[in-house]
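testing teh design pipeline on a random one, pls ignore if ur not involved
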């Protein structure tokens, strides 16, 4: 198959690379010329484990190409995947990048093509795209279908090759057969391929993300209760998760959810529902609960520091919203750090994926290139992200200061062991 991927970000680059690895000819296009130049010179612009090797291998084998020529790339392809960003603007999915891509597609339908929305788009976006493409000249030359993406950053390649399910939203037999053939090498069991209506596919993506966000917020609130009742949230999570109806995943208490999907998708889903006069009260409470979480954690930090943050050195270990990615979008650290600086704290941070431009404008904040420099002389070390390298630290030799404190927002350490080692250790829900 000849494939064009429009939008070479986390989703587009991973999907394009993996499709090429399965033997397809893939052109990944992007409007960001720097990104394309980097990829053409063999540098992968994002951090995703295993991606660089796969990009280089398939580039070398002449199956994977990078270009800014959107028109030419669409013309050469049988399937066009739209993988551009869909950020929220005023709580509504902003589809300007999607529609820009669609206008490029409409000018280049030189033969029958399948147009796939892999970007997360609100219900009925497929209908709108179809309407835009549906000119006399383009009659019978396309099928618009929805194929939402469920990959997780940090595990994206594994998720692509071993998906829980591939959802294809179309009623077209022809398009469905082509998509089934495309995905055949990775659909290990038949029931992993799920064909449905286009609108249902669009909603499945939002409803899945909102459900996972609910699970996270739910366990975070139960963790709040555990702190009051002197119960260990880890034990409660394990006990709940053993129920197969519930499942053990997404039951780890921590900072609120962040990233490029859950925050924006929950907001956009509520907007879609409001427009259909449907009250998604559960999702609304989840958004509220998650927004409150950052404030709550900041209050907890103040309490740990005996309400005196002025000139206190606070070290953040990790600032991304989760381990395995360099993505900073809606990371809790973006809210917590400025609040601490406002209160007079001096922030140092170490992040395995490097310094972050999002903090460039902040004063009293320093990026450290290693753990030792970051922790040295700190009054408080906050474990913000669950990177493996933070799991077995000797805090005393790293910090070298009397009475320093540790706030483990990921529950990586055992409170008992920390107490035995005479460390001032605080964690979540324990
Ligand atoms: N990141 C994830 O983990 C994830 C997972 C599942 C679904 N999604 C969804 O996938 C979509 C893409 O997310 P992402 O994280 O990959 O975004 P991203 O911001 O990393 O990448 C989007 C890319 O599209 C490019 N672009 C924008 N307009 C373009 C155009 N007209 N032509 C060509 N390129 C264009 C941008 O320059 C950018 O490189 C979003 O809808 C997101 O909700 C993301």
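output:
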């Amino acid at each position: 198959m000849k494939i064009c991927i429009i939008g070479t970000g986390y989703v587009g680059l991973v999907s394009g690379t993996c499709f090429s690895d399965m033997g397809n000819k893939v052109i990944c296009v992007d409007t960001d010329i720097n990104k394309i130049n980097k990829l053409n010179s063999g540098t992968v612009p994002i951090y995703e484990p295993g991606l660089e090797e796969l990009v280089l291998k398939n580039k070398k084998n002449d199956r994977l190409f990078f270009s800014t020529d959107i028109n030419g790339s669409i013309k050469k392809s049988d399937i066009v995947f739209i993988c551009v960003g869909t950020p929220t603007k005023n709580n509504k999915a902003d589809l300007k990048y999607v529609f820009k891509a669609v206008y490029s597609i409409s000018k280049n339908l030189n033969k029958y093509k399948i147009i796939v929305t892999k970007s997360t788009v609100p219900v009925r976006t497929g209908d709108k795209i179809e309407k835009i493409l549906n000119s006399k000249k383009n009659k019978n030359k396309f099928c618009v279908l929805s194929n939402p993406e469920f990959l997780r950053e940090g595990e994206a390649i594994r998720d692509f090759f071993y998906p829980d399910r591939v959802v294809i939203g179309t009623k077209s037999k022809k398009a469905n057969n082509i998509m089934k053939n495309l995905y055949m090498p990775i659909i290990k069991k038949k029931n992993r391929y799920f064909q449905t209506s286009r609108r249902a596919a669009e909603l499945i993506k939002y409803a899945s993300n909102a459900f996972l966000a609910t699970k996270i917020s739910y366990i975070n609130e139960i963790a709040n209760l555990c702190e009051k009742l002197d119960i260990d949230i880890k034990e409660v999570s394990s006990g709940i998760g053993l129920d197969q109806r519930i499942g053990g995943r997404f039951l780890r208490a921590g900072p609120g959810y962040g990233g490029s999907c859950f925050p924006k998708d929950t907001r956009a889903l509520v907007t879609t529902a409001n427009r259909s006069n449907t009250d998604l009260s559960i999702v609304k409470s989840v958004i509220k609960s998650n927004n409150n979480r950052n404030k709550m954690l900041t209050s907890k930090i103040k309490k740990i520091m005996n309400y005196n943050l002025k000139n206190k050195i606070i070290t953040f270990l990790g600032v991304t919203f989760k381990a395995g990615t360099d993505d900073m979008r809606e990371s809790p650290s973006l809210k917590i750090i400025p609040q601490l600086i406002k209160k007079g704290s001096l922030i140092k941070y170490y992040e395995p994926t490097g310094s972050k431009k999002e903090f460039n404008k902040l004063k009293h904040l320093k990026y450290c290139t290693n753990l030792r420099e970051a922790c040295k002389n700190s009054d408080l070390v906050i474990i913000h992200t669950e990177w493996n390298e933070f799991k077995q630290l000797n805090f005393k030799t790293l910090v070298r200061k009397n009475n320093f404190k540790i706030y483990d927002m990921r529950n990586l350490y055992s409170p008992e062991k920390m107490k035995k080692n005479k460390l001032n250790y605080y964690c979540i829900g324990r």
